[in-house]
Structure formats: structure tokens, C-alpha cells
Amino acid sequence: MKLYVYDHCPYCVRARMIFGLKKLPVDLIMVLNDDEQTPVNLIGKKAVPILITDEEKAMPESLDIVCYVDSHYGTKCLLDNVRPEIENWISKASQYVNYLLLPRFIKLGLPEYQTQSAVDYFVKKKTEAIGDFDTHQSKTTEYLTRLHRDLEELSALFINDEAVNGHLSYEDILLFPILRNLTCVKGLILPTNIAQYVANMAVASRIDLYYSKAC
After folding, report:
1. Fewer C-beta neighbours within 10 Å, C or N terminus of the chain?
2. With contact defined as beta carbons under 8 Å apart, do 209 and 198 qualify?
3. Cα–Cα distance for residue pair 9/108, rounded to 1 Å
4. 2 forms bridges with which residues in the sheet?
């Protein structure tokens, strides 16, 4: 199977996770951020992740990919349940975490930004969505204060540091990509149990963290 992704994309991380958790091989194909033609040719629109199945079918949508791989390759490893408290936390964090993340992604040396045109494309699209990158980066302390408070609330929802609710589930698929991406933020302090969870899940899912590149 092949999986077309961006490294920074949380939806792509979801799709990548299931291959790591099930120890399945997959060919990762990193797409330049301004490459519209490749995904359009595959699924008719610019979007990733895209899975090319063993039957050569192109499948978009991260959770559809996760469900397909979990259901068709070996014993299912994910429980379907997602607690409302986790959904609410993700919804709350989504109101501001991109202010921390988007200005930093282009500084990490990621494969989707290996050309200046790819960087320019990303900056134009995302500044239209969230505003000036430098302005948001100048507010890092303000955003981190809010995030650290919210992370303490999240910490209380963790059952253990191997899986959020004590067994691998869609809670992990939804939550880990956000926490993983936050490791690119210099000054981030994760509660002890969440920090251990992020480290454990990175190994289990074969997803690199960004601590060494944090800015």
C-alpha cells in the first residue's frame, strides 16, 4: 500500500498511526504543499491523506483509512468509543492551537516545504485563514499559558500512558496527532503522564516527534 501525506498534517498522522500500531508496511509518499495535481489526479481534489490500497483504489479521508486498515488487516486493535470529554477538549484546543503550530511548521525543515514555492503557497493559504504568522508567534507566551491550563485538564482524563482510555481506541487516533504536533513549540511543558504517553505512542505508531526542531 501507498500513503500520500504531509508530515505536519494531523489527519495524515491519524492515517500513519494505524500502520505503525498494527506493524504493517506502507510506502509513505511526501507531497509538496503546493502540489495540487497529484491529489487531484488521484481523488479529484487537493487533499491528503490518500491511501492507495492493494487493489489500487485511491481512498481519501483519514478516519476512513484508519477504519479500512484496522478492519481488513489482522485483528482489529481499536475500540470505537470516544468520550465526550475528549471530544470537548479537542474542540476547545482547536480554537487556538493552530496559532502556535502553523507559523512554526515552515521552520522545521519538513519535506512538504522543500521548495520556496511550497512555503509561499502554505503561507498565503494559512495567513488568509488565521492572520499574520509573526503576530501569532509574538503571542506564544499568551497561547502557551492557555494551553498549559487546558493540558492539565486533559491530564485528568488519561487512564494510563499507553492509551488514553486504557485500551487503544479512536481517542488515540484523534488526540495523539495534536499532541505530537505541539512538540514543535519551544517552551511546551506537558504534564508528566501526557509526556510519557506521547513518547510511548510515538514509538508504537512509528511517528517522529518534533522536540529536536522546536522553535
Report:
1. C
2. yes
3. 13
4. 27, 52
